[in-house]
Amino acid sequence: MTDPAPSGPPLTSPPDHPVTAVLGGGVMGETVLAGLLRSGRPPEAVVVSEKDPDRARDLEERHGVRALRATDAVRGAATVVLVVKPQDLEALLVEVAPAMAPGQVVVSLAAGVGTAWLEQRVPEGVAVVRVMPNTPATVDQGMAVVSGGASAGEAHLAEAESLMRGTGRVVRVPESQQDAATALSGSGPAYVFLVVEAMVEAGVRLGLPRPTATELAVQTVLGAATMVHETGTHPALLREQVTSPGGTTAAALAVLEQHGLRAAFLDALAAARDRSRELAGG
Ligand SMILES: NC(=O)C1=CN([C@@H]2O[C@H](COP(=O)(O)OP(=O)(O)OC[C@H]3O[C@@H](n4cnc5c(N)ncnc54)[C@H](O)[C@@H]3O)[C@@H](O)[C@H]2O)C=CC1
Ligand SMILES: O=C(O)[C@@H]1CCC=N1
């Protein structure tokens, strides 16, 4: 294994806060860790393991949590959150499984990795929950999708949901829907960023200064998403309200349809769903 993070003193859980170990302190690991702290868990009840020593130190300094070797982090933790890339998961589990004990819950955020695959790699009596988060979690606007494995009970699912609630909304789905959810909400922020980028560039091409084009595009996307969210009105009806007969919006929408926008989304999400299915195979 690569040079591990420094090992601290043995874990002692504060009485009311069982320890959560976050394995992998990258973008998503730090987001989960920060969400836990913001939602009131004390820093003593959260430990991180990050194989990049500089990154581990940085997380310790900025969040006040301890960075430990993965096996030390797992020993004594009630909940173990797996936040490494799917390709790194097998090696991590080979390392930490001997340190796991019955009664623990493993919450995996790795795209495409099923609970059955995980259950084969953890000791009997360790429950597994699969979660697909997304990056708006970094600004507390995340969408996390949660599914339990064969031995996960209500308490394990509730713990996974509570972990993610510090970063936004949480829904529970059957695991058979996880690859589709990954395609929609896991990867989804990237589609919206692409749309914002394209709108800004189009505005600049029409002569708007870049800062103005950026402000107009960002506020329009935010405002439109807030309207769907707050009114509960079907997006097709909201779109009709904007579209005057023979007007500007109708002209633009006709071009987007000619370019196959809907078909592109159908094919794009199917490609993401298929890739999610492939990822577990490495
Ligand atoms: N970034 C995203 O939008 C989303 C990511 N995910 C999932 O979250 C997981 C993590 O993704 P990111 O945070 O984006 O990746 P990342 O590359 O930013 O972070 C992964 C971290 O794990 C560390 N690591 C690798 N092996 C380790 C080991 N054995 N022990 C300790 N640390 C180790 C790496 O040094 C790295 O810092 C992936 O499985 C991904 O599928 C899920 C949904 C959205
Ligand atoms: O692109 C990926 O594979 C990860 C999973 C969902 C978002 N990012």
TrEMBL record:
GO biological process terms, semicolon-separated: L-proline biosynthetic process
Listed GO CC annotations: cytoplasm
Domain Pyrroline-5-carboxylate reductase dimerisation: 175-279
Catalytic reactions of this protein: L-proline + NADP(+) = (S)-1-pyrroline-5-carboxylate + NADPH + 2 H(+); L-proline + NAD(+) = (S)-1-pyrroline-5-carboxylate + NADH + 2 H(+)
Top class in the EC scheme: oxidoreductase
Keyword set, alphabetical order: Amino-acid biosynthesis, Cytoplasm, NADP, Oxidoreductase, Proline biosynthesis
Binding site for NADP(+): 23-28
Its EC number(s): 1.5.1.2
Gene Ontology molecular function, alphabetical: pyrroline-5-carboxylate reductase activity
Annotated pathway: Amino-acid biosynthesis; L-proline biosynthesis; L-proline from L-glutamate 5-semialdehyde: step 1/1
Chain positions covered by the region annotation Disordered: 1-23
Name of one Pfam family that matches: F420_oxidored
Gene3D superfamilies named among the record's database cross-references: NAD(P)-binding Rossmann-like Domain (3.40.50.720), ProC C-terminal domain-like (1.10.3730.10)
Ranges of compositional bias, category Pro residues: 1-17
Protein name: Pyrroline-5-carboxylate reductase
Gene, per the UniProt record: proC
